[in-house]
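Example record

The entry below shows one chain as it appears in the dataset: sequence first, then C-alpha coordinates.
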Amino acid sequence: MSNDPAKPGARIILVVDDNPIILKATSMVLTSKGYQVSIARGGPEAIGLVRKEKPDLILLDLAFPPDPSNIGGPMRDGFLIMEWLRRIPEGEKVPIMIISGTKPADYEKRALAAGVLACFHKPLKNDELLAAIQTALEKQSGQT
Protein backbone atom coordinates (compact mmCIF):
# COMPACT_ATOMS: atom_id res chain seq x y z
CA MET A 1 0.00 0.00 0.00
CA SER A 2 1.65 3.21 -1.16
CA ASN A 3 1.20 6.56 0.51
CA ASP A 4 0.67 9.89 -1.21
CA PRO A 5 1.74 10.05 -4.83
CA ALA A 6 5.40 10.96 -5.20
CA LYS A 7 7.19 12.57 -8.08
CA PRO A 8 7.49 10.39 -11.17
CA GLY A 9 10.68 8.35 -10.90
CA ALA A 10 10.83 8.78 -7.10
CA ARG A 11 12.81 6.11 -5.28
CA ILE A 12 10.61 3.57 -3.48
CA ILE A 13 11.25 2.79 0.18
CA LEU A 14 9.44 -0.08 1.86
CA VAL A 15 8.94 0.34 5.62
CA VAL A 16 8.22 -2.95 7.40
CA ASP A 17 7.01 -2.52 10.98
CA ASP A 18 4.02 -3.61 13.06
CA ASN A 19 3.77 -0.29 14.91
CA PRO A 20 1.27 2.05 13.18
CA ILE A 21 2.86 5.14 14.77
CA ILE A 22 6.31 4.24 13.40
CA LEU A 23 4.79 3.49 9.98
CA LYS A 24 2.94 6.82 9.85
CA ALA A 25 5.77 8.97 11.21
CA THR A 26 8.45 7.38 9.03
CA SER A 27 6.21 7.55 5.97
CA MET A 28 5.57 11.24 6.53
CA VAL A 29 9.28 12.04 6.89
CA LEU A 30 10.25 10.04 3.79
CA THR A 31 7.37 11.37 1.68
CA SER A 32 8.30 14.95 2.63
CA LYS A 33 11.75 14.29 1.14
CA GLY A 34 10.28 13.09 -2.17
CA TYR A 35 10.44 9.33 -1.67
CA GLN A 36 7.59 7.03 -2.59
CA VAL A 37 6.77 5.00 0.52
CA SER A 38 5.15 1.60 0.79
CA ILE A 39 4.32 0.06 4.14
CA ALA A 40 4.01 -3.51 5.32
CA ARG A 41 2.98 -4.67 8.78
CA GLY A 42 4.81 -7.98 8.62
CA GLY A 43 6.75 -10.51 6.59
CA PRO A 44 4.11 -11.91 4.25
CA GLU A 45 2.93 -8.42 3.29
CA ALA A 46 6.55 -7.27 2.81
CA ILE A 47 7.32 -10.17 0.48
CA GLY A 48 4.24 -9.40 -1.61
CA LEU A 49 5.16 -5.72 -1.89
CA VAL A 50 8.77 -6.45 -2.79
CA ARG A 51 7.57 -8.67 -5.63
CA LYS A 52 5.02 -6.10 -6.81
CA GLU A 53 6.76 -2.76 -6.28
CA LYS A 54 10.48 -3.64 -6.40
CA PRO A 55 11.58 -1.09 -3.77
CA ASP A 56 14.95 0.64 -3.89
CA LEU A 57 15.50 0.22 -0.13
CA ILE A 58 13.85 -1.56 2.81
CA LEU A 59 13.58 -0.35 6.41
CA LEU A 60 12.90 -3.47 8.50
CA ASP A 61 11.91 -3.94 12.13
CA LEU A 62 13.22 -7.05 13.90
CA ALA A 63 10.29 -8.17 16.08
CA PHE A 64 6.70 -8.76 15.05
CA PRO A 65 3.68 -10.06 16.97
CA PRO A 66 2.50 -13.59 16.26
CA ASP A 67 0.71 -14.07 12.96
CA PRO A 68 -2.66 -15.72 13.72
CA SER A 69 -2.17 -18.01 10.72
CA ASN A 70 1.39 -18.94 11.72
CA ILE A 71 1.64 -18.68 15.51
CA GLY A 72 5.23 -18.65 16.64
CA GLY A 73 6.39 -19.05 13.08
CA PRO A 74 9.37 -17.56 11.36
CA MET A 75 7.63 -14.37 10.26
CA ARG A 76 7.97 -12.96 13.80
CA ASP A 77 11.74 -12.53 13.40
CA GLY A 78 13.06 -9.73 11.18
CA PHE A 79 16.21 -11.71 10.35
CA LEU A 80 14.12 -14.58 8.99
CA ILE A 81 12.00 -12.13 7.02
CA MET A 82 15.25 -10.77 5.60
CA GLU A 83 16.31 -14.30 4.59
CA TRP A 84 12.99 -14.79 2.77
CA LEU A 85 13.35 -11.44 1.01
CA ARG A 86 16.85 -12.45 -0.16
CA ARG A 87 15.44 -15.66 -1.66
CA ILE A 88 13.17 -13.89 -4.12
CA PRO A 89 14.72 -12.34 -7.24
CA GLU A 90 13.11 -8.94 -6.62
CA GLY A 91 14.57 -8.74 -3.10
CA GLU A 92 17.97 -10.37 -3.28
CA LYS A 93 19.94 -7.16 -3.88
CA VAL A 94 17.71 -4.53 -2.26
CA PRO A 95 19.59 -2.63 0.48
CA ILE A 96 18.16 -3.23 3.95
CA MET A 97 18.42 -1.06 7.05
CA ILE A 98 17.13 -2.16 10.44
CA ILE A 99 14.83 0.00 12.56
CA SER A 100 14.30 -1.60 15.95
CA GLY A 101 13.45 -0.90 19.56
CA THR A 102 16.24 -3.32 20.47
CA LYS A 103 19.67 -1.81 21.11
CA PRO A 104 21.85 -2.21 18.00
CA ALA A 105 24.69 -3.63 20.11
CA ASP A 106 22.47 -6.68 20.75
CA TYR A 107 22.25 -7.63 17.05
CA GLU A 108 24.74 -5.50 15.12
CA LYS A 109 27.24 -8.30 14.36
CA ARG A 110 24.46 -10.55 13.05
CA ALA A 111 23.03 -7.65 11.02
CA LEU A 112 26.35 -6.79 9.41
CA ALA A 113 26.96 -10.46 8.62
CA ALA A 114 23.54 -10.50 6.92
CA GLY A 115 24.51 -7.53 4.75
CA VAL A 116 22.45 -4.89 6.55
CA LEU A 117 23.70 -1.39 5.69
CA ALA A 118 22.78 0.35 8.95
CA CYS A 119 20.96 -0.19 12.23
CA PHE A 120 18.76 2.45 13.85
CA HIS A 121 17.26 2.44 17.33
CA LYS A 122 13.70 3.67 17.87
CA PRO A 123 12.72 6.38 18.33
CA LEU A 124 14.36 7.14 15.02
CA LYS A 125 16.61 10.15 14.53
CA ASN A 126 15.24 11.37 11.22
CA ASP A 127 18.33 13.32 10.13
CA GLU A 128 20.60 10.28 10.61
CA LEU A 129 18.13 7.97 8.90
CA LEU A 130 17.66 10.30 5.91
CA ALA A 131 21.41 10.76 5.51
CA ALA A 132 21.99 6.99 5.55
CA ILE A 133 19.18 6.41 3.04
CA GLN A 134 20.53 9.08 0.70
CA THR A 135 24.05 7.63 0.89
CA ALA A 136 22.79 4.08 0.25
CA LEU A 137 20.66 5.13 -2.73
CA GLU A 138 23.48 7.20 -4.24
CA LYS A 139 25.85 4.25 -3.88
CA GLN A 140 23.22 1.96 -5.47
CA SER A 141 22.77 4.39 -8.40
CA GLY A 142 26.51 4.40 -8.97
CA GLN A 143 26.57 0.62 -9.26
CA THR A 144 23.74 0.32 -11.78
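Notes for this example: Helices lie at 20-32, 43-53, 78-87, 108-113, 126-143. The domain at 12-96+103-143 is CATH 3.40.50.2300 (Rossmann fold).
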